[in-house]
Structures are given as C-alpha cells and as structure tokens.
Amino acid sequence: MLSSARNSQESRERLRVERVDTQGRATGLTATVHEAHTRDGGLLHRAFSVMLVNDRGEALLQRRAGTKRRFPGLWSNTCCGHPAPGEAPADAARARLAEELGIRAGALSPAGTFVYRAEDPGSGYVEHEYDHVLVGRFEGDAPAVDPDEASEVAWRSPAEILRDLDGPGSASYTPWLRQVVEATCRLRKGSA
User: Fold this and answer.
1) Average pLDDT, stretch 16-27?
2) pTM for this one?
3) Which long-range contacts (CB under 8 A, 24 or more apart) does 143-147 make?
4) What is the DSSP letter of 139?
C-alpha cells in the first residue's frame, strides 16, 4: 500500500500547474507540482478547493492521508488540487472529486478566490496558491475514498469547524481551511 501511495504521489508531483500573479492572471509560465511547492519558498500557482454541503448545512471534510507530501493527516475541505494550465478549475475539481472520493459532482458554484502561503513545518514544502473556492451539494457518504488521498471523511457544521479553528485543536486542520469555510458560508448566506 505504501508503495502504491508513493507512486501515486510521485506521478502527481510531475503534473504541470499554471503560474499566476496575485490577481489570478496567468503569467504564461508553468511548473511541475513539485517545483511549485519547493522552489524559492513556493511559486504562486492556480489551485482549487471544493466544499460539498448537505441539506443540513454540514460540510464534508476529509482527513488528508498520512502519505501526503504536504500537510499529511490534517483535516481539510472536501477536495483540493490544481487545474492543468488552461483548464477550468471546476472541470479539474469534478475530476478530483471522482478520483479521491468517488463522488460525481453536479454544479460547483464559485464562492470566491484568495491567495495564501503556508509552509508545512514537517516537510518544508510550501503551498503558495491562488485558490478558487467551489461549493456543491452532496448527500450521503463518499462512495469510494482513495486511501492514498484521504484516511477518513466526516460531515461537520461550519460553525463547529470555525470553533475548532479558533481553539486548541486548530493544529489538526490545514492552514487554508478557514478561508474555504468562510467563503462557503458567504455563498450559502447570499443564496438563502
């Protein structure tokens, strides 16, 4: 299993990402996922974060697999990743949801963008991303969680997540989760 996870991770590290400026405009440059997360303290590149919510208003979180290169074992939003250069973030997000969790997503609504930079103290890798937050609806359990991507999933209320992020348990969550939860809440409040 560890060999499979390592091969999967190494393959993903070779994929190309689109470098962008702080306004999300493509610079015309690309980098591998590995280069984008290590060179010069992290190269700013396009990413997406998906949050799926159910009819009760709960958000589906995943605990990142312990074999992940960046922020392993931490709770995070439903799914995240990188679109290929020129690929629409929502298209890439739907593909990753299917790959990671076996979820066939319908519409994913844009909930905003933000730039963040976070260094993983355990690995030294750096996340420096222009992140597109996408929100969709889903009911039930993830049908096919890929253990190389996530060790578990759980439904949690946004209020509970934000309380945890303000408390002593905040180290159990990825650094970008707060901004994803807040963007999700703003979108849901605006559409209510």
Assistant:
1) 97
2) 0.92
3) 143/101, 143/102, 143/103, 144/101, 144/102, 145/62, 145/100, 145/101, 145/102, 146/99, 146/100, 146/101, 146/102, 147/1, 147/5, 147/65
4) -
Annotated catalytic residue: which of 80, 100, 127, 149?
80
**Residue tagged active-site, from 18, 127, 129, 149:** 129
Q: How far is CA 3 from CA 12, 147, 183, in A?
A: 14, 12, 37
> What pLDDT shows up at residue 7?
58
Confidence of residue 11 (pLDDT cuts 50, 70, 90): confident
In tens, the pLDDT along 152-173 reads 999 999 999 999 999 998 999 9
Annotation says 80 is catalytic: yes
182 is catalytic: no
Q: What is the DSSP letter of 172?
A: G
Single-letter code of the amino acid located at 141: D
Please state, in angstroms and rounded to a whole number, the distance separating the CA atoms of residues 93 and 105.
9
pLDDT, residue 92, reads: 97
Which residues, other chains included, contact 135 with Cβ-Cβ below 8 Å and sequence gap of 6+?
50, 51, 52, 53, 108, 109, 111, 183, 184, 187, 188
Chain centre to alpha carbon of residue 135: 12
